[in-house]
Amino acid sequence: MTLRHTRSSNYPEWYQEVITVSNMAEGSVSPGCMIIKPWGYGIWSRIQRTLDEMFSASGHENYYFPMFIPLSFFQKEADHVEGFAKEMALVTHSKLRKNEEGELIPDGVLEEPLVVRPTSETIIADAFSKWVVSYRDLPILMNQWANVVRWEMRPRLFLRTREFLWQEGHTVHASSVEAEAETEQMLEIYRIMCEESMAVPVITGEKPVHEKFPGAVKTLCIEAMMQDGKALQAGTSHYLGQNFSRPANISFQNKEGEREYAYTTSWGVSTRLVGGLLMSHADDEGMNTPPRVSPYQVIIVPMVKDESKREAIMGYISRIEEGLRSQSAFGEKIRFKTDKRNKDSVDKYWEWARKGAPVICEIGERDVLGEKVMSKIRCRINTTEHKKLLSFNEFISTIGKLLETIQSEMYEKAKVRLKKNIRTDIKTMSSFREYFAEKSGWVDDKERSHPAFVLGKWSGDETTLPLLKELGVSIRCIPFSYQDGEEGECILSGKPAIKNVIFARSY
After folding, report:
1. Do 218 and 206 meet the contact criterion of CB atoms below 8 Å apart?
2. Is 390 helix (H, G, I), strand (E, B) or coil?
3. What is the rounded distance in angstroms from the CA atom of residue 237 to the CA atom of residue 207?
4. Coil, helix or strand for 213?
5. How far is Cα 424 from Cα 461, in angstroms, rounded to an integer?
6. Selection from 484, 465, 51, 453 nearest residue 230 by Cα
7. What confidence tens digit (pLDDT) does each residue in 386-444 have?
8. Which residues make Cβ contacts (< 8 Å) with residue 486, sequence separation at least 6?
């Protein structure tokens, strides 16, 4: 059952339709905000749990800070506030009152406006300034799971909404060496999570100076390629140096007894990862959810055509459930659900197929009599059959391995797409213009060639940036893995250049 909009016919509308048919989220009466539904929130919860375990294993602890931040905190750090000024939402009044017409109007002007948290560096830095006294207090390694408000002018479900969920890590260190090592460590955690749990290959690198986080010394990032060839910034890790500790007075007495400003970092990912997951794996029938982040990995749909057989079918399903409880995949118990809703079985199957549940088992009278399990694999992957009719024992004993195979093949498919669509043969501005003159579109479409990533030399000359803006292209990162150290010509200016960068359109 192909969707009304396909990746090749209308990629943006296809994206919105997949969210709708998979019932992951919908728009809200609050403009620019979204309601995240159980399947979408379940995916986010799996990502959250995975990251939280990795954070804990690396010594980080969870805190929670207020979402209302005094405006004066942002004014202490000019570069930071300038970077977020257009996105900030302010609370200026403390209450409402009725006017003569009976309408509610703002009342009680606040002495100082409060910013609704766009990010928490400033308020956390204020706390750090009180907590840090001696080098013995360091390092502080903390993380916060929270919501954030940024006044997006062009909202898009999961990718850009005015309120979204995220985690933000903040750490304080006694030396720049420790802080930079922390920045790199957290980027690696994000890479592992994206590639191993979400089956999304990423390119790790450093942002060019003009793209770094406001107030940071340097910003590291992971960039993923979506099915339309555009880049999605999937996570960032910032080395802040002393840029936030100086205005906030985060200082400590070092081992020599001298006062010194601390070195800080911040790093974060958000619910835009759910949008990235969709654009990496969904197809023209709906969502494809990688087993490691799927809320349920196995769905059982009772196929009851004769009510007199219901008891026997449900009894057999209970045996399947008991068998699944004894099995694991990826070192965890398998997550399964039997759909017992009073609804047509075919409709139930297609609901779960649209959500991208990895394995859907249809159990009817024939399966009971033959002690069989009919399972359908949602993902169209390379080496696994779409349908499997197995004996009860074979299904139970192989389900864990099947889920692991689906996961690895989804990753390999996305990895092939990434590698296939990184162009390295574009060396001049004229060929660059010609390449990006084409609109973005589904890069797996065999009939047309759509632009994706270009790997090439850049001199670092920011006067070339207007040329990129004209084409709707940006420098996504200076990738760690694609540097040859050889001097060549900058694609944009023709000047000598050593660094390779990734050029692409982006979300």
Report:
1. yes
2. strand
3. 10
4. coil
5. 20
6. 453
7. 888 999 999 999 999 999 999 999 999 999 999 999 999 999 999 999 999 999 999 98
8. 498
